[in-house]
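As a warm-up, study this chain.
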Amino acid sequence: MSTWYQKVFPRIKDVKPYISKISEDIKKIDGVKKIYLWGSCHKNFDNPTFRVKDVDIIVKTFFNSGDLLSIDETILSKNYKDEYLEEQGYHPAAIKFSKQYKNITKNNVDRWAISSDKKLLHWGPILMSKEESDEVKKEAEQFAKKETGYNRSKIIKSSQKIKDKWYNSHEHYLGKYLSGMPSGWYKSSEEDIKNILKNTREL
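Now compare it with the structure written out below.
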């Protein structure tokens, strides 16, 4: 399997084999209804040379958002018995789903889920609204340009060393907004699930 996820801005043709493999693996997880490809990778799926920063995968699941939002990295790292988890108010199957979903995916993959009560969730801290996210990402790109001298369109044709520096600067800026927040499921403020799914590709 290609090690595309170790590279900065891999091409669509590098990513496609992994997307095919990961979708087959995710389908084997209990609680998964459907899988979708979202974001720039979906929009440019038929352009083999297009370079993507990351891959957005959405899983439609049977679990309620409340059951998922109670899960974080700490509970996943423990091996509690189902009886104990239920006594503590957790849904054992939701924990198993979250652990398997998290472990299947690699770096450069954003893990999303749509709950049974139609909430959009993300594994890991996120900027809550699209407007806030777009603004901060724009600021992060400007910061990375200041650090490297390259904007996002020009970085594609630069050396791997410059790509890595640009990417690290970009992620460092974003990280300032999310620092101190534990890893786990977070609810997005996006509520129009039908519109989100219109802009995806079912896998």
